[in-house]
Amino acid sequence: MALPELSLERGTDHVHHHLGHAGEHRHLTGALALTLGFALVEAVAGWWSGSLALIADAGHMLTDSTALALAALAAWLARRPPTARHTYGLVRAEVLAALINALAMLALIAFIVYEAVQRLHTPRPIDGATVLTVAAIGLVVNLLVAWRLSRGGRDLNTRAALLHVMGDLLGSVAALTAGAVILTTGWTLIDPLLSLLVAGLILISAWRLLAEALQVLLEGVPAHIDLQQVGRHLAELPGVRSVHDLHVWTLSSGKIALSAHLDVERLTDWPRILLAARHLLAREHGIGHVTLQPEAGDNPVLQRMDTRRP
After folding, report:
1. In the list 157, 160, 184, 190, which could disulfide-bond 101, CB 3.0-4.6 Å?
2. Which CATH number does 11-217 carry?
3. Per residue in 158-179, pLDDT tens?
4. pTM confidence score
C-alpha cells in the first residue's frame, strides 16, 4: 500500500516562484522592445552601407526579437497554474522556447557563413563611416539589453535570451572594428572575416544550449546528478533493502523530479523512510519533487539496480 506523498514545498515557495516569473516577463518584454527597434535601424544601415557585419548583426537582432518574444511568452505561460490536462502546469514552455532559439541561431549562422564566403570571393564596396556609427550605437543598445536581462533570473529561458544578446554584443564589436578598419585603411575583406569569427563564437554557445534543451525534453538525467550515487544513498537508508525503477529528470530549469521503488524490510517503517529519503534527496542532490513507492518481499524481479545494501 502506497502512503500519501508528503510535500517538502511550502506556500511561500510557490509565491516566490510566481513572482520570479513575473519579474522575468517584465525584463524580457523591455529587452524585446529595445532589440526589435534597433534591429530595423541596423538592417537599413547595413543595406545602405553594404556591410555584411551590420546585416548579420541586424539579422541576429531580428532573430533575437523573435527569441525574446518567445521567451516572454514562455515566462508568462510558466506562471499559469496546473490544470487537469497539464498537471505540471506549462513550465516546459521555457525549455521549448530555448530549443527554438538555439535552432534559429544555427540557421542564422549558416546564412552568415554562406554570405561571408561569397564576399570573400567577390568583395563589395562598404561605407566605413556608416558602419562605425551604427555599430557604436548598437553596442550601447546591446549593453543596455544585456543589463536588463541579467537582472531577470538565471533559468534556461532567460539564459537563452541572454545568449542571443551576447551574440549581438560580439556582432556590434565586430561591426565597430570593421567600420574602423575600412574607414582608415579601405580594406573591405575585414567585414566578412569578422562576420565568420562572430559566427564561430556564437556556434559554440548555441550548440551547448541546444544540447541542454534536448536533454531536458528527452527527460535525460541532469548533468550534475550521479544516478548510481542517488540509488546508493537511497539503498543505504535504514530499513531499505534495494532500489529499482529509479528515474531522475528535469521538469524545468532548477526543478528536478525523481521517482523510484524502494524494497523495504517492513511497510510499517515507511513513513520514517519516506521522510528520511526526501530530506536526503533535497539536501544531498537538490531534488525536491519526489515520488517513492514502497515494496516489501524478496521478489528477485525487484533487484534491478546494483544498489542493494551489503
Report:
1. 160
2. 1.20.1510.10
3. 666 677 677 778 778 888 899 8
4. 0.67
